[in-house]
Amino acid sequence: MILSNKYRNLAQNTAIFAIGTFSSKLLVFIMMPIYTRALSTAEYGTVDLIQQISNLLVPIVTLGVTNALIRFGLDKSFRKNDVFTTGIICFLGGFSLLLCFSPLIHMISVTSDHTVMLYFFVLMSAMREMCSQFSRAKGYVKLYAFDGFLTTFMTCLLTIIFLMGFKWGINGYLSAIIITDALSSLFLFFSARLYKNIKFKGLDKRTFKMMLRYAIPMIPTTLLWWIVSVSDRYIITYMLGADANGLYAAAYKIPTIVVLVSTIFMDAWQVSAVSEIKDRKALAKFFSNVFRGYQSIIFLAGSLLIPFSKICTIILVAGDYYESWRYIPFLMLATIYNCMVQFMGSVYMIERKGVTTLVTSIIAAVTNIVGNFILIPICGVNGAAYSTCFSYFIVFVIRAIHTRKFIRINYSVLKFGVNAILTLAQAIIMITEVPGWIIYEVILTLLVLLLNIKVLILSFKKIVGRFGTIGSIFPKVWDWQRFWEMTAFLSIILAF
Question: To 5 degrees, how large is the angle CA 230–CA 236–CA 240?
Fold first, then answer.
């Protein structure tokens, strides 16, 4: 009964995140044609690099404490006032330090004309990240999901005004995000009453030290994952030019669909993994069952999207970006393994193994950089996709083996290997466009479906099977609990 409650809570949280995220992320894909029409490939590449630099600076500014907010905020052995106040102190100190390095940042060629915008971007992004993570830690999952919808809607609205109306170009794109993050921070700060959790007087020094001990190793870890996901873009820009990076950045947007499915689940999973189960055997069983269903969904999502690389590109981007479809298949594979890596990382999170996370991140970063310098000159832009895919795969294998020391996650290695081979074959067939590639893609997708359908059905039964007959799922008196559970499964399936 205890374990079934964990599935129910996980399903309910997943459903809430899904409802908010699907509706909001849909607007992002609708906006892609506007982004790619309002900005040239070079401008889009520049915007992408500025965003990635900001993503690099946020964990530094917050001293990595955003990771600790969710981990310690969910732990009932720590006072939430101490947790959030520690986060605020770290943020104020980190941003003050960043201001001292403004002359150095201004020297970076990509950001030299947009330094002020970059600072506001980092400031608002860090504030929103802290407010959203702590709101989730306080249990405001519905508010967290609604904020995701509201934020994306406002971003799209302001982007249309600034790009299409005022024609502000790069500054318009960045301004829309900055303003939206500021509004989101204020919304969460007052709606979730986060101001009540700021208590500088009487701050528990033990909590402060433990959070820093957990968070500080996360700074280089985050930087290293940034290197894995972004270094290829800088190397492409250096070797092939901003236009090539613009195409590569556009191609990265399509695999975001799989990231969307994963993010919805991982948001809910972090809550369950930290707060739900204390018994180690039950925890191992929970992890094993969830991972088997998770990997089946992710592999199937990737398998379904790879054959549609060309169609997605035609629909979502302007004509100048059409060639970007060639980079989607292997970026899709990279995304699949990235999702697996993040799941295994949740083991390190609950065990507070920040240093171990750092070591595996170093391996990923080194592998990716070396691969980029070797493969990009040989294979062009796709060399970066190959390198990224390989680095994520290597780290997944390492984490899958190493995490068994803490939580023994049981799953079929053979089945995982077959999934990996089938999707790899799809990617190769797609980019080489062998004669009759459509037929091969359909066959391979069906094989992936057949391979995973049993696990998907079992996952469905875990959610609704305990109600008995199908008819009992829809009782005469409406049960919102059952509604959330049904929606969770259907939302993930419809994500395809």
Answer: 165
